Amino acid sequence: MPLARWAFNIRQPLLLENIEPLVTSLTDDDNHGRIIVPVSNLLNYLPKVESDTIRQLHLEDDMRRALVARLMIHAFFTAHHHCQWEDLVFDDSESTRPVVLSPEYLKNVSFNISYHGDWVILVGETESTSGSPVLLGVDVMDFQEQVPGESFESFSSCFQDQFTEKEITFMAEASAEGTQPCTETQLKRFYRLWCLKESTIKALDVRPDFDLKTIEFVIHDEEETEKPILSTVIEVHEPKPEQLPEEGWAFEEALLDADHCYAIAAQSLMEKAILDGSEIRRFDWKELLKDAVPYPA
C-alpha cells in the first residue's frame, strides 16, 4: 500500500516569492535581496477554529510547528485524496489525532503527524483501503532536548517504569562513537526507543496511561542512518493490553539529520508489506503551499 512520508524543517524562512501575502505586516530582511514574510500570515490558510488554537501558543517555535503540522495535513489530503483545501474540516476533541469530519469519505484514511525540535513529519495512506484497516503512527525526536551536561543515568531515571530491562540494557551499553561521548550515544538510543514506543501508541490511538512496559522493541541494527531501517520488531508482554494487536506490525526508523530521529509504526493484517524503506520526502514552503487557498475570514 502506498504511503506518503513527508518532512518539513521549520527553520526555513518563508519568502514573499512563495506566498501571496494575505495581510500587510511584512518584515524586511536582507536575505539576498528577498523579503521574509512572518509565518503568522499563513494562519489565513486554516479554518478559524484551527488558527485560533495556534494563536494561543506563546513561543514562536511552538506556533511554527503547530502551524506547519496543520498545513501539512491539509496539503496531504488535497494532494492524495481528491478534495479541495478549503473543504476540509477536522475535529480534535475525541482522539489523540485530528479526525476528518468533512469530506466524509475521508474519515477512514489513516494518517499521523508528529513534531519536535526543527522538524514536522507526516505519514499517511495515499489510497483509501476498503479491506483490513491500517494503523499508522509516527514520532520524531530532537536529540538535543536533554539538559546539557546531564548524565544518562539521571536523565533516564524518570523513565524507568516505561522501559523493559532489555531496553534499558540496550541504552546503557551504548559505546562512544568517534568524538561523541558515551552519554550522548546512550541518549540517542533512549530517544530512538522513545520514538518507537510513541509511534506505536499513536498508531493505536490510546491515552497516555497506556503501560509502555508491555511492549518491548528488539533492535537488530544498532546504529541509525538516514537510510530507513526495517529490521526492528516488537514483542508484547503480560499483561497484554486488549487494544494491542500482536501480529502485523512493522517499523521504519531513520535519522532526519544529525540531531533528529523518527520512527513510523504500521499495523495491518494485509499480506503486502506496508513499509518498504522509502526515504522521506522533504518539503519546502513552495511545495507545501502549492494547493493552499485562504479560508473565509
TrEMBL record:
GO terms for cellular component: cytosol. The keyword Transferase applies. The keyword Repeat does not apply. It comes from the Eukaryota. Signal peptide: none annotated. GO terms for molecular function: holo-[acyl-carrier-protein] synthase activity; magnesium ion binding. Residues 42-126 form the 4'-phosphopantetheinyl transferase N-terminal domain. Pfam families: AASDHPPT_N, ACPS. Its EC number is 2.7.8.7. Keywords: Transferase. GO terms for biological process: lysine biosynthetic process via aminoadipic acid. PANTHER family: L-AMINOADIPATE-SEMIALDEHYDE DEHYDROGENASE-PHOSPHOPANTETHEINYL TRANSFERASE, PHOSPHOPANTETHEINE TRANSFERASE. This is holo-[acyl-carrier-protein] synthase. It comes from Lobosporangium transversale.
